[in-house]
Design a protein that fits this description.
By secondary structure, the chain is α/β, with parallel strands linked by helices. The chain has 2 domains: about 1-100, no CATH class; about 100-260, HUPs (Rossmann fold, 3-Layer(aba) Sandwich). The chain is about 55% helix and about 15% strand. It is built from 8 helices and 9 strands. A 5-stranded parallel β-sheet has the order 7-6-3-8-9. The chain has a two-stranded antiparallel ribbon with strand order 1-2. Helix 1 (about 10-35) packs antiparallel against helix 2 and helix 3 (about 70-100) crosses helix 7. The longest helix has about 30 residues, at about 70-100. It is elongated. It starts with a strand and ends with a helix. The relative contact order is 0.13.
Length: about 260
């Protein structure tokens, strides 16, 4: 028996495909439910379920979607999922292409982008960024660091002050740390940090920044828009939310591309 004019055979192969779609759909939904117990809700958290629900629907109901509006709906879902996959592949390549190894980055000033606090405690993502920054600063004793981040909802201190406290406790001298404690987004991180860097250096310095790996590509484009030709150092993501962050960042890159901001 054939489905849709022979495009797919309703046999063993199609059953395997349907099982794979159903399993992927269930895994996507489960991922969202799991991450919701450990992270604040955002688009990245819901993306696996947003894609998983139609995958599960296709896996369960494909044989019934042969005629009329159901057939149209089926191919709209397939087209949408194929487009999402293509976007993820392209964005993944862009993200990987932007990452530079520490050995290839020479900087006089290093900007650490804030990533949220729990009260006055560092989030895991921010701690991983600071670990990368600390390692670089220890190997480059003449480099200064700009810790950039204001105070957001649920935070009792500024991200900049919490980052400075972390670095001071691990032996980085106070005179090497510049606090930028007003920024509320990536654009402000770079714009306000550039003002402080320009005030600190008499001549134009070499600048690098630290952010989580998935964010290096887009952050680099934002830095360039603010007049900073800066290389990005990638910090590891928190493993259980890495997929969600990758999906959310892919949406962000796509929106930037549509707006012509890349």
């Amino acid at each position: 028996m054939q489905c849709d004019g022979g495009v797919f055979e309703e046999g063993a192969n199609m059953k395997i495909i349907r099982i794979c779609m159903s399993v992927l759909g269930v895994l996507g939904i489960a991922d969202t439910l799991f991450v919701l117990t450990r992270s604040n809700p955002n688009l990245g958290v819901f993306m696996p379920a947003i894609l998983g629900l139609p995958l599960l629907g296709l896996g369960l109901f494909w044989p019934m979607m042969k005629k009329g509006l159901l057939k149209v709906l089926k191919w709209m879902i397939v087209s949408g999922l194929a487009l999402a996959l293509a976007i993820f592949i392209v964005c993944g390549i862009l993200m990987l292409s932007a990452i530079r190894s520490e050995e290839k980055v020479e900087a006089d000033a290093l900007i650490v982008l804030g990533a949220g606090l729990h009260g006055d405690r560092l989030s895991w993502i921010l701690q991983k960024r600071l670990e990368v920054a600390l390692h670089y600063l220890e190997k480059h004793p003449d480099c200064v660091v700009v810790v950039s981040g204001g105070q957001g909802p649920g935070e009792t201190v500024t991200e900049a002050s919490a980052m400075a406290k972390y670095l001071l406790a691990r032996g980085i001298e106070a005179e090497r740390i510049i606090l930028e404690d007003q920024a509320t987004n990536t654009i402000e991180n770079f714009a306000l940090s550039k003002i402080l860097i320009d005030e600190h250096f008499e001549s134009e310095p070499r600048v690098a920044f630290v952010t989580t790996g998935f964010h290096v590509f887009r952050a680099g484009r934002v830095a360039r828009s603010q007049g900073l030709d800066a290389s990005g150092l990638a910090a590891a993501d928190v493993k259980y939310i890495a997929l969600n962050n990758f999906m959310r960042e892919s949406v962000g890159i796509t929106i930037y591309a549509i707006r012509g901001e890349l």
